[in-house]
From TrEMBL:
SUPFAM superfamilies: Acyl-CoA N-acyltransferases (Nat)
This protein's record includes keyword Transferase: yes
InterPro entries reported in the protein's UniProt record: Acyl_CoA_acyltransferase, GNAT_dom
Molecular functions per Gene Ontology: acyltransferase activity, transferring groups other than amino-acyl groups
Species this protein is from: Caulobacter mirabilis
Name listed for the protein in its UniProt record: GNAT family N-acetyltransferase
Amino acid sequence: MLVRPATTTDQAAIHAVVEAAFGQPDEADLVDALRADGDALLELVAEDESGAVIGHLLYSPLATDTGAVFAALAPLAVAPGEQRTGLGTMLMEVGHALLAAQGVDAVIVLGHPDYYPRAGFSAAAAKTVKAPFSGEHFMALALTPGALDRPVAVTYAKAFGIPSP
């Protein structure tokens, strides 16, 4: 198994994996739109032993009202035959380490409350984040200690189609 930065030659395979993982094209179209808008902050793929793309993760920048550097994790996709193998968690661990090295202070995700805490996310950590979301599905992870200790408003990339808070 190899996790590496995505390249332009991976785009068709990424689209196929994301669409298969979600059972519809919406998330794959989101990846394409984020990339086209220049809002792919970090994009990773996982390859199997044959070199086939079997997983994908994209982070986009979140504008903040405090100057802190935040990223949105969306989407995370693993090919249906590879799900429940730890691949998604591995992609997040690699991604978080790379983001931290780039100076990203925190990561926000809107996702399943039983899944994302495996990679350190929590709804409690997101309580200081003002966004169009809240509740147990809206989670955050501080990559810099204290990054989520004070209130911060975030604005998502245009491709998400989410109004500012």
